[in-house]
């Protein structure tokens, strides 16, 4: 999985009501609410703000009773990479395709990329896809291996946060429901 630690810098405001409290606690709380669960184009999905170092000298802005302090902090981020092979759990299946949980985000697999079978049928009652020729079935809750075929950043509506959109495929050798992948592995040769 493409998790990584990223060092960043920002300013935090310490309101007068918080004077006397540990600067690191105030800064960590503010940075967590500002960054966790957000997407930054250069960094990816911010899973957690882990630690912070705060400058002891603050700046005062005219008309504001708080102080502003420089903060250097570490974030745990998830950035999916085009072409990477990932494993995830099928969270939802619809006529058009499946949503797969990969790390903290969802990826989408179009119906035609679910398996290498000429005819794939969707069974709405079991939320499953079934291959006509292979009789293979993949359902909600199954663990699958897929390749990322596209990563894009979008803003659904003005004023909303940035989102990561990930498209996946399971049509190549070594990909698919984990039971299928294990079936295809050749038996070990005896010496």
Automatic annotation (TrEMBL):
<keyword id="KW-0963">Cytoplasm</keyword>
<dbReference type="InterPro" id="IPR036898">
    <property type="entry name" value="RNA_pol_Rpb7-like_N_sf"/>
</dbReference>
<protein>
    <recommendedName>
        <fullName>DNA-directed RNA polymerase subunit Rpo7</fullName>
        <ecNumber>2.7.7.6</ecNumber>
    </recommendedName>
</protein>
<feature type="domain" description="S1 motif">
    <location>
        <begin position="83"/>
        <end position="171"/>
    </location>
</feature>
<keyword id="KW-0240">DNA-directed RNA polymerase</keyword>
<dbReference type="GO" id="GO:0003899">
    <property type="term" value="F:DNA-directed RNA polymerase activity"/>
</dbReference>
<dbReference type="GO" id="GO:0005737">
    <property type="term" value="C:cytoplasm"/>
</dbReference>
<keyword id="KW-0548">Nucleotidyltransferase</keyword>
<dbReference type="InterPro" id="IPR003029">
    <property type="entry name" value="S1_domain"/>
</dbReference>
<dbReference type="InterPro" id="IPR045113">
    <property type="entry name" value="Rpb7-like"/>
</dbReference>
<dbReference type="InterPro" id="IPR046399">
    <property type="entry name" value="RNApol_Rpo7"/>
</dbReference>
<comment type="subunit">
    <text>Part of the RNA polymerase complex. Forms a stalk with Rpo4 that extends from the main structure.</text>
</comment>
<dbReference type="GO" id="GO:0003677">
    <property type="term" value="F:DNA binding"/>
</dbReference>
<dbReference type="InterPro" id="IPR005576">
    <property type="entry name" value="Rpb7-like_N"/>
</dbReference>
<comment type="function">
    <text>DNA-dependent RNA polymerase (RNAP) catalyzes the transcription of DNA into RNA using the four ribonucleoside triphosphates as substrates.</text>
</comment>
<comment type="similarity">
    <text>Belongs to the eukaryotic RPB7/RPC8 RNA polymerase subunit family.</text>
</comment>
<dbReference type="GO" id="GO:0000428">
    <property type="term" value="C:DNA-directed RNA polymerase complex"/>
</dbReference>
<dbReference type="InterPro" id="IPR012340">
    <property type="entry name" value="NA-bd_OB-fold"/>
</dbReference>
<dbReference type="Pfam" id="PF03876">
    <property type="entry name" value="SHS2_Rpb7-N"/>
</dbReference>
<keyword id="KW-0804">Transcription</keyword>
<dbReference type="GO" id="GO:0006352">
    <property type="term" value="P:DNA-templated transcription initiation"/>
</dbReference>
<dbReference type="Pfam" id="PF00575">
    <property type="entry name" value="S1"/>
</dbReference>
<dbReference type="InterPro" id="IPR004519">
    <property type="entry name" value="RNAP_E/RPC8"/>
</dbReference>
<keyword id="KW-0808">Transferase</keyword>
